[in-house]
Amino acid sequence: MDPITVYGSGAWGTTLAIHLARKGQSVCVWDKDPRQRERLLRDRGLRNALPGISLPDSVEVLYEEAVPDPRGEVILLAVPSHGLRWLLKGLPATGPRLWIIATKGLEEETCLTMSQVLADVLGDRVPGDGVLRDDGREDGVGPVVVLAGPSLALEVAQGKPSAVLAASHDEAAAALVQRLFSGEMFRVYTSGDPFGVELGTALKNVIALAAGIADGLGLGQNARGALLTRGLAEIRRLGQALGARPETFLGLAGVGDMVTTCTSPLSRNHSLGEALGRGEPLEGALSRIGMVVEGVRTTRAACTLSDRVGVELPIAGQIYRILFQGVRPAEALHELMTRPLRQE
Amino acid sequence: MDPITVYGSGAWGTTLAIHLARKGQSVCVWDKDPRQRERLLRDRGLRNALPGISLPDSVEVLYEEAVPDPRGEVILLAVPSHGLRWLLKGLPATGPRLWIIATKGLEEETCLTMSQVLADVLGDRVPGDGVLRDDGREDGVGPVVVLAGPSLALEVAQGKPSAVLAASHDEAAAALVQRLFSGEMFRVYTSGDPFGVELGTALKNVIALAAGIADGLGLGQNARGALLTRGLAEIRRLGQALGARPETFLGLAGVGDMVTTCTSPLSRNHSLGEALGRGEPLEGALSRIGMVVEGVRTTRAACTLSDRVGVELPIAGQIYRILFQGVRPAEALHELMTRPLRQE
Fold first, then answer.
1. B304 near A CB under 8 A
2. Quick check: A259 contacting B, CB < 8 Å?
3. Is B204 a catalytic residue?
4. Residues in contact with A216: Cβ distance below 8 Å, sequence separation at least 6, in sequence order
5. Residue among A323, A329, A146 at smallest CA distance from B344
6. Per-residue pLDDT tens for B39-72?
7. Segment 113-152 of chain B within 8 Å of chain A by CB
8. Over the stretch A271-321, which tens digit does the pLDDT of each residue have?
9. Greater confidence, B203 or A122?
10. B86-139: per-residue pLDDT in tens?
C-alpha cells in the first residue's frame, strides 16, 4: 500500500506511526515544530513521552518547513486540537483520499469536533450535524474516519493490549481503517457514530479532571465510582441533545476511555486535577506538567455547548468554577454533594 | 423511630449500623457467628476490616444464639449471600415490615438474587420476575428495598463520600430508605429496578476478577478500560435478557460499582484476580485472602444464567475457564483478544 502520512508527531502520532510501521505499513511523519522533527531524526524516538521506544527504520521523518503534501492517499491527523485548522488550510484538499482523525478534543472558539473542523475548512459541511459523509468524496474530499478509544500512547507503543474504535458514516472506510490498524494487541471495532465518538473522547477529559481533583482531595474509590457514573450521565445527556447516539457513550469512546483516563497516572488531565485537589494553583500546576492539558479548554467548550442546548452539566459546571472562577475544590465538591436527591 | 435490626455484622452490616447510629437512629446488630458477636461486644468494632472505627454507644449488639426476632419494624439484611436463605427461615415472616437488603450476590445453586431468595422463602413470589411487589404487604410481608452501589465499607465508615441506590418496586418504601440513610457524605438515589440493581451489583464482581487478572498480568490501563467496557456490555445484555432495565447498568449499580470495585486495592475480587494473574493457584490465593470472594461463585452463576437465556458472555466464560478448568490467565486473555472483530 501507498505510504500513510502522519501529521503531528506528539506521543500519539508517533505511536500510531510506529504501530503501522511494525505492521509493515510504509509511513512518513511530519511535525510543525522543527525541534520535534529534529528530535525524531536524531533520537529516532521521543525520550520523554515514549521512553525506551524507537522508530522502526521504515518510518520516514519529513523535514520540510512548510506543510508537506501527503505522500499517498491516506492522511492521518494527529496534531493538537488547536492546530488542526491551521494544518488543514495548508493541505491540498483535492483528490480522493482517506482522512483518519486521531486528534482528540473540541476547538475552543467554535466548540466543533475535529471532523467538524475538517468539514468546515474543506467546505463540505453537511447541514444538521456538520459531519462529512461518504458523498463528500464526490466533491474531491475522501471519507473521514475517527480513530479513538482508551489508548494511552506509551502502552500502545509498548505493545500492551488496547481496543479502539474506527468511527465513520462510511462503513467501507471504517472497515478499511479497522484492517489497517488491527493487530492481536490492538483491537479495532467499527462504529457508525463519529460525532458521538469525538464528543465522548473530548468530554471525558472534563471528568478526568474531576476524578483527579477528587483523588487530590483524598475522597476515595466510592467517590470515584459515583463521579464517573454521574459524569457519564451528563456527557450522555449533552451528546444526545447535540445529535450523538446515546449508546456510543457506553462504549469504548465513553465508559472505556473514561475509565482509562480517570484511573491512570499517565493521564495529564488526571494529574492536573490531582494537583488542584491538593491545593496547587492552576498556573503553577500547568507549567509544572508542561504539556497541553486538553481538559482545561474542553471544560470551557462543554459549558458553552451546555448553555447552547440547555442541558445542565453539574460536574463540568463545578470544574469550570474551580478552573476559571477561583472556587476552592472542596467547596465545589460540597456543592455537588448537597444537590437535591432524586431518582437515578 | 423504632430501632432497626441489622442481621449480619460483617464489614458492610457493621458499617451501615454505624452510619445509622451516627444519624441518631437506634440500631441493634446480630451475627450468626458467636466470635463475631464477641468481637463487637469486646472491641466495639472490627479491628481487621474497619481499623480505627468504633461502634457508637447507641449500637446494641444482640447476643442470642438463635436468630432473634427483630426489635422494630425495619429489618436490614447484611449476611453473606450464601447465608440469607438460612437466616430468613429463622425469622418470623408476619407483620408489616420494611425489608432492606444490603446483601450482594447471587445464590449459587439457584442463581436467584437476594430479593428473589426472600420472595422464595416467604412464599410470595410474583410470577415473571420473582420479585416481591408492594402488594406483598397484604400477605403480611412488607415492601423490599435493595440498597446497593459503589460502597467500600471502610470508606463509608470513615465518612468519605459515597452515592448509592435504594431500589424498590414500592416508590414510597424506596423514598423512606432514601431518607433513612441520606447524609451529606452518603447520597442515596432511588431506583425502580431492584432486580437490575441486584444483578449489576453481583455480576460486576466477575469483571472485577477479570480486571484483577489483567492487572496481575501487567496489561495496563488501556486493557482495563476495554475490559470494563466490554464487561459492562455483556452484563447489560444478560440483564436485559433476564428482564432488568438496560439503563440500570449505566448507573451506580453498574458502571459506578464496577469502577470502584475494579480499581480499588480494597476489593477482594480484584485482589484475588491479581493473584491469579501473577500465577498464584486459586486455592492458595483464596486461603491467603481468607475471606469470602463473592466473584468466584458469581462466575459460576453467571455462566449458568448465560446458558439458560442463551446470551454469550465472553469475559465471564474465560474467567470460568481460569477458575474451574485450570486454563492459564494469559491463554484465556489471548482467546479474548483474538475473537473476530466486529462493530462495537
1. no
2. yes
3. yes
4. A273, A274, A275, A276, A277, A278, A279, A329
5. A146
6. 999 999 999 899 999 999 999 999 999 999 999 9
7. 149-152
8. 999 999 999 998 888 888 766 678 888 999 999 999 999 999 999 999 999
9. B203
10. 999 998 766 668 999 999 999 989 999 999 999 888 875 333 344 444 544 444
Q: A16 in contact with B at a CB cutoff of 8 Å? A: no
The pTM for the full model equals: 0.90
Q: Is B197 on the interface with A (CB under 8 A)?
A: no
Q: Would you say residue A134 has pLDDT above 70?
A: no
A223–B192: do the CB atoms touch at under 8 Å?
no
- pLDDT tens per residue across span A11-37: 999 999 999 999 999 999 999 999 999
- How large is the C-alpha radius of gyration of chain A? 20
User: What's the grid cell of residue A66?
Assistant: 512548510
- Long-range CB contact pairs, B127-136, < 8 A, 24+: B128/B243, B129/B195, B129/B243, B130/B195, B131/B169, B131/B194, B131/B195, B132/B169, B133/B169, B133/B170, B134/B169, B134/B170, B134/B173
Q: Which residues of A touch B341 (CB under 8 A)?
A: 178, 182, 187-190
A150 and B225 within 8 Å at the Cβ level: the answer is yes
Going by C-alpha positions, the residue among A172, A178, A204 that lies closest to residue A190 is: A178
- State the count of interchain CB pairs (< 8 A) between A and B: 194
Which of B182, B257, B337 is closest, CB to CB, to A187?
B337
Judge contact between B120 and B112, C-beta under 8 A: yes
How many residues would you count in chain A?
Answer: 344
H or E element: which one contains A242? helix A221-242
* CA of B339 vs chain A CAs: smallest distance (Å): 9
CA distance A13 to B26: 61
- Total residues belonging to chain B: 344
Q: What is the ipTM of this complex?
A: 0.91
> Cβ contacts of residue A311 below 8 Å, gap of 6+?
A234, A237, A238, A241
B273 touches chain A (CB under 8 A): no
Tell me the three state secondary structure of residue A89: helix
**Directed axis angle between helix A329-337 and helix A314-324, to 10°?**
160
Helices B282-289 and B268-277: crossing angle, nearest 10°? 150
Catalytic residue among B23, B89, B104, B204: B204
